[in-house]
Amino acid sequence: MENWKAVMFLLAFGQGIFLSFALIVKGFKRQWSNFFLGLIFYTLALELLNAWGIQVQYHKSADAFPFWNFQTYLILPPSLWFFARFTTTPDYMFKRKYCFFYLPALIEITVRNGWSLYHYFTGKNLPFLLDIPIWFFVTEILPIISMAIVVWIYARKLLHFHQLWTEQSSRLNLSQYLRLYGLCIFLLALTLLWAAGVVLNLPVFATIEAVLTVFLFVFGYIGYIDAAFFTLPVLAGIKPSEKPEFAHYDDEHQLERLMVIFKEDAIYTQSKLTLEEVAGKLRLPPRYVSYLINTKCNSNFNNFINGFRVEEVIRKLNDPKEQHKTLLALALESGFNSKSTFNQVFKQHTGKSPSHYMMTQK
User: Fold this and answer.
1) Which pLDDT value is given to residue 240?
2) PROSITE patterns, alphabetically (predicted)?
3) Same domain for 347 and 210?
């Protein structure tokens, strides 16, 4: 039975670490919400690897690699915070100075590895770090408090997002509820169990390991099937931001240039098109391009480009020369990167699913 648990922990770790790296790589392609979600998966996957190590007594091996020194719970609160901002706030931008939120995590990893190396090379026994009260508070208690606050803020954002979503579309189905609340509910449950084990000393760590194993398997397979599952839909009707410090630009002229690259150059057919890429083509600051779309088009960036993509699919559906192609092929040619995203965006813009729309056109 114990060996079976160790195998499950190791398999779940493999699933989680593979998914975390895949999400982090996507993040480097300016899909920042995936990057921060990848950091969350990385931390949780290492927790299961640690559970495996304890199960098979790997930590006691003389030649064991101390992977546990690269795990820190201080990664979780800022990662969830930025993930929440990117998925619920249109055109949110990550600034370099925000990297300082990860400085405590970097310090913890550095100290833990330095502690181990000092013992390895000198043979001297050092105090167990968690026995030092200030270290225990900063690395164990503070992350729990921070996670509780961030999960609460994230839940409030999701409830507001849910209200806007239902106002702009039909009632949510089970898959959409899971997409909207699944991660938040899991992290809420994990934080409560975490607090019960660390603060109240309750015997809940076996439950935490089981919850983590199930989570990494279920959400891992969901991530493989639909990489955009965790990305919330873009909602219209967001209040435009105030004009930034670009008063010297001619808004009407720059808007005309923006429309040219969309209507004539069809830049929207480029999959995973980013605001920075559009701004680079126009040689304009990204914030100014965002301002133009918000104020002049009454939309946000993602909703703006998806409107062109939906119109392109509709045009091709009515073009006899395109009748030999599948609906999915037309969607991919128009710039969509997955079937699920296309179905959702198409319904958001037309009020009908693609299949229903095709039936009404016959």
Assistant:
1) 44
2) HTH_ARAC_FAMILY_1, HTH_ARAC_FAMILY_2
3) no
